[in-house]
C-alpha cells in the first residue's frame, strides 16, 4: 500500500490534551463506612487521552507529530509528557503550561473488567488572554512546520474562537489542509477548514436534521457545507462512514468492525489515519478505507488503543490465494460463492453491482467507482449476451460478453466478474448474499432487485449518483458527443 510514505510527513494536532488514568483491582468486600464496594488496587497505568490520543494514534503509524495544547504545571503534566515521549516522534514544546488550572485527568477505577467510577480533574472555563495568545502562536508555528493539521475539540477550553481562527488562517496561508473534529453546535466558527469529521449525532445536532439514512446524511451535510465550506466525513457507528464533498460524489463505506469491545477513542483513530493518509498523498477513497479499517481494528481492543501501520496494511490488503485470481475470466457462481466466503472469513465486506455495461462511458466509470468505495471487495455481475438481447433488442450487445468481462474486470476496484443469463441477478444475489448492493439512483431502494434480501441480513442498498447525459443507447445512436466539462468523472 506504499505506507512508507508516512515516513516523510508531519502532522500538527491542536486541541484538548488529557491524561487517562486506569486503576485496576478487585472487589471482595463492602466498605464499613458506607454501602459501597472496596476496590483493592492491583495495578495502575497512564495513557494519553483526548487530543493526546490523536497524537499517539498518529505516532503509532510512524508519523512525526507536533502537539499543541494546554496543561497545568503539575504531576499529571509530567505523566502526560512521559507517555507521549515513548515513540520518539512527538514534539511537545507546543504544550502550554498554566499553573492556575490542572492538567485534565480522567481517573477510572475498574474491577472485574467493569468500570466502577470515574473521577475528573479539569477546568473548562475560558483561558486567560495571555494563555490564549500563547496557544495561538504555538498553533501557527506547528502548522507551518507540518503537512496537515488537526483540530481536536473536547470542549475543555483550548479551542476558543481565537485559537480556531488563528489555526485555520495559518493553514490557509501555508496552503495546508486542516481537519476538524467538531464539538460545538454552531459550525460557522470552522469556516475555512478543509474537512469536518463529526459523528452522526453531532451532524444532526449541528444541522437540526435527521441523519439515519444515506440520503439524510447527504442532505444534512449540504447544510453544513453552506455554513463552513468544508467537506464532511461522518462516522456512523454500525453504518460505517460517509464522505460528502462540497463538490463531487458522496462516498459511503460499510463498517468493517468484527468484534466490538470498546468504542472509546475510535473517532481519534479515524481522524489520525485520515489525516496521515491525505498528507501522504492518498486520494480520499483510499484514505477513508484505511481510516474505516483502523476504526474496525481499534474497537476490537479494550481501552484507549491505537493501530499500527502493519495492522492497517494487513486489513486493507489481506492475502488472497493464487487460485482465487480470475485472470480476466468470468467466475462461475460456485467460484464466486467460494471467494465471497473466503473474503467474509477475513472480515471483508463484499459488494455487488450489475448491468449490461455494453459501451463503457464516464457514467459507468463513476458508478463502478462509487460501488468499489462502498465495500472492500466488489463483484460485478454482467448480463450475458442472451440476456442483453432480450432486454435491449436484437442489435445489442455491441460488445460480446467476453469483451465486456475483459473491460470491466480490468477496471480499478473490481475484484471479480460473473455473468448471468437471466433477466435479473436475483439468483446471484440469493447465492452470494452480498453486504452491499449497488444500483444507479434512477431506481428507488424498493425497485432494486434483491434489495430486500440484502437488507434482511443487515446489508445496505447503495444508490449511486448518475452522471447526466451519458448512456450507451445515445452512444450507439451517435447522439452523444464530447463530454461537457461539468460532467467529468470526479477524482
From TrEMBL:
ATP binds at residues 199-202. Pathway: Nucleotide-sugar biosynthesis; ADP-L-glycero-beta-D-manno-heptose biosynthesis; ADP-L-glycero-beta-D-manno-heptose from D-glycero-beta-D-manno-heptose 7-phosphate: step 1/4; Nucleotide-sugar biosynthesis; ADP-L-glycero-beta-D-manno-heptose biosynthesis; ADP-L-glycero-beta-D-manno-heptose from D-glycero-beta-D-manno-heptose 7-phosphate: step 3/4. Transmembrane segments: none annotated. The gene is hldE. Keywords: ATP-binding, Carbohydrate metabolism, Kinase, Multifunctional enzyme, Nucleotide-binding, Nucleotidyltransferase, Transferase. GO terms for cellular component: cytosol. HAMAP family: HldE. Coiled coil: none annotated. This is Bifunctional protein HldE. Residues 352-491 are annotated as: Cytidylyltransferase. The lineage of its organism: Bacteria, Pseudomonadati, Pseudomonadota, Alphaproteobacteria, Hyphomicrobiales. It catalyses: D-glycero-beta-D-manno-heptose 1-phosphate + ATP + H(+) = ADP-D-glycero-beta-D-manno-heptose + diphosphate; D-glycero-beta-D-manno-heptose 7-phosphate + ATP = D-glycero-beta-D-manno-heptose 1,7-bisphosphate + ADP + H(+). It comes from Bosea vaviloviae.
